[in-house]
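Fold it.
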Amino acid sequence: MSNRATIAYRDGSVAIFRDFLQNEWPLSLTPAVPRRPQCRFRTQCVDDESTKGSPICYGSNMHHAHSQANGVSPAVRERARPVLVPPVAFDQDGYPHSDGSTLFGEHQARTLFNTVVMLWTAHDGQLDAVVAGDMFVYDREGDPQPVAAPEVLVSFGVRVGEDERTSGIRRKRNSYKFWEEGKPPDFVLEVLSPTTWVVDVGDKRELCANLGIAEYWLFDPFDKYLEDGPLVGLRLRKGVYKPIPALPDGSIPSAVLGLELRPNGDEVRLRDPKTGRELMAHREAVAAYEQAEAARKRAEANCQQAIADCQRERVRRLRAETSRDRERAARQQAEKRLAELQASIRNLRGRG
């Protein structure tokens, strides 16, 4: 049997994923399946016809998903939503905003952190912008189960409260709620991993399209799960995600962000097309800060040295002026004494 799988989406498009070793394939293609990972999410894993006799636990934050050839099934929402792992923290309205799961590998964490920091820095001070990573998303008020928890989420034009306008400071969010923000997110980026890629390219794609998220992006730091390269951008058109064509240099433009994204090894880089400059990743920002701090310290040291030199020069001038004043006073005293002596001599001569 071939180690290739075909997943058909609602819009009729077909994605064919790359060949790779049987023990890396996350679906059961032969009776000899890999060892089943321990499930931290539910007591029972999905056991449909595609995995009958050998259920597979994906162990992912978006949980067990098997893409189906006939569009989105009624169970997509349930299969795609994140499942909470105790201990769970709740906000004041009773909605969970964090749990005890550790869901990120090194590649996911690096991409999430760098991308969120770059976008957050780019939109710092913009009150109607939300930039978040691994934030629970709720689309229905009253439903305490999050519908998604994307690696990177960006939303523009959200509601801004009067307190925010007055203070100029964004309110703190623990989760993204459609009814509070007034709209769905605009941009979602998912980082593929061996345990999440099937969900990310299948059910979660359908879910985000149904939620009305304008752009859905997939990044494969392993460069082995996506046929069209490690980075794929999809734009919602009439309810269906269509691929965003790449530019000649390989980067892909995001109309939502107004930036160009490109893969760079195991990370995603962002470029401003207006300036042609890339946004700094966290390590680059830290390096730039350290360089600026070192330059500041050198400038401060030079300034202190200049101040000390100036003070020494001032002391030297004061001493020189004091010395000149003393010399002037001594000369004046000597001239006065000389005048007195000359007057005395004239008086003595007059008497004689």
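The two ends are 146 Å apart (CA to CA).
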